[in-house]
Amino acid sequence: MKKHMILLALGALASCQSHENNQETASETPADTTTIKLTSAQIKNAGIQVGTPQMAQVSGILTLQGTIDVPPQSAVSVSFPLGGYLKKTSLLPGTYVKEGQVLATLEDMQLIQLQQDYLSAREKMTLAQSEYQRQKELNASKATSDKVYQQSKAELENQRISMYALAQKLELIGINPARLTADNISKQVHVLSPIDGFVTQVNVNIGKYTSPTDVLFELVNPKDIHLALNVFEKDIQYLSVGQKVVAYTNQNPDRKYEAQVLLISKHVNADRMATIHCHFKQADASLLPGMFINAQLTVSNRTALTVAEDAVVRWQNRFYVFKQKGSNAFSMTEVTFGTVNEQQRQIEAPGITPGTKLVIKNAYVLLMKMKNSS
């Protein structure tokens, strides 16, 4: 029925234009494809009405957009603290790995040197400890000076510090210093997975030299995904922790996912929007980190700028209204939707106030006329 009425209105516009050559002529500015100008007769025959948006109490559904996200502990960038040549890896993006699984094998001369330094420091500490015990016994019987005794004690402490520092470096690259001996020094070291999850990026290949700042692999654990939604600052006051959320994807809007508001950001970005984090009651394996998703929240009564549904048009998945621009001229302006209540649409856009003149009836006629003329 709505399409039929639009076609009739377009027919009326064409008929009026052909029979009223002595009246005002319709024209469009070629340089501005968002503005259209009609004659007074065309506006009358098409039933176009101009009015202003109204401030009204609305309650209903707040529609938000966002993405599937994971907490920092579930998204890991894997690097290696020392440089080395990649000797072996079999990972591809999408590969599932378990915590502790070998991701890659690296080898380098400095790995050997580090193990050698640790074993040498351990032997020196053993020697320093023996010397300290000897000097301690001699000093007790005054067979040696206090200075020699203090020097042996300081040497022992220096060797202890050196050995423990090297031991920490070995543990950092995955080598157990307690099991290291001269017989099992290795030129290779394994890079292990810190979490259970999937490989999202592989940034290396066999034979490549990697530095400590290089990210070898990106891992993500999708079991703890959550929903990160963007909300305008004016709507933050209507949200609360524990509020129920219904989410759905563009690919499958009929499949609903229940969630709950877990955290509301205390920071508003340059776009005057804040982020809220929602926890899924039961996530689905089809929801992947980074995926775009829509969500709806039920909000209570509040005052907002509204227009009739007939004042809003949709074009290329965006929503617009027509602002009056001079005599019989109209400019198409993009708006953001809010809640819907009793066929009244909440809108928001820069420059639109309760005093702004808008087309409030048969806005689709203007859209059809503009695009057909283009």
TrEMBL record:
GO cellular component, one term: membrane
Domain CusB-like beta-barrel: 227-298
Cleavable signal peptide: 1-20
InterPro entries: Beta-barrel_RND_2, MFP_Cation_Efflux, RND_pump_MFP
An MF annotation (GO) of this entry: transmembrane transporter activity
Keyword Cell inner membrane tagged: no
Pfam families for this protein: Beta-barrel_RND_2 (PF25954)
Keyword Transport listed: yes
Highest taxon listed in the record's lineage: Bacteria
Any single biological process term in GO: plasma membrane copper ion transport
Gene3D superfamilies xref list: 2.40.30.170, 2.40.420.20, Helix hairpin bin
Keywords: Signal, Transport
Family to which the UniProt record says this protein belongs: Belongs to the membrane fusion protein (MFP) (TC 8.A.1) family.
Protein name: Efflux RND transporter periplasmic adaptor subunit
